[in-house]
Amino acid sequence: MGEEQPKSLWEYGVPDTTTGALSSIVRPTVNAANFELKPQFIQFISNDSFAGLANKCPISHIAGFLEKCDTVKINNVSEDAIRLRLFPFSLQDRAREWLRDEGVGTFDTWDKLAKAFLMKFLGQEKTAKLRNELATF
């Protein structure tokens, strides 16, 4: 009765989703007691989400995101810890897929994540702007 059934090959291939190990973001350890990002603040971040469309400016998205994050200060919690936890909530559609596809544990600092995000989406915005300028010339 107490014997555990052997796992099938398929079960060995399924990653453990309980640890957050599937994320491209490595969340810094937080030593604060009772650390919680309130659902209202997560919604506040989500209201201005970036979808990866070529006509939207990724620099403006980062600037707005940082402005919002700067309204929260929690003792014994770094800015990186807050930003890295909240940034996925500021993305949707193609941008969220990009973050998901970046590979497990790719980003362990805000600086790395922000630079990769800008490198991915800034080129598209400039290309779209030039294309529009040429089309209306």
Note down, in words, how this protein is organized.
With 137 residues, the chain is mainly α. Helices cover 50% and strands 0% of the residues. The radius of gyration is 19 Å and the shape is globular.
Any chance you could write out the topology, listing elements then pairs?
Elements: H1 9-13, H2 39-46, H3 58-69, H4 79-86, H5 93-101, H6 110-135
Oligomer: single chain
What percent of residues adopt helix (DSSP H or I)?
40-55%
Radius of gyration over alpha carbons? 19 Å
Give the overall average pLDDT.
85
Task: State which percent range the strand residues make up.
Answer: under 5%
Order of helices and strands, N to C? Answer: HHHHHH
What keywords describe this structure?
137 residues, mainly alpha
Concise structural overview:
With 137 residues, the chain is mainly α. 50% of the residues lie in helices and 0% in strands. The longest helix has 26 residues, at 110-135.
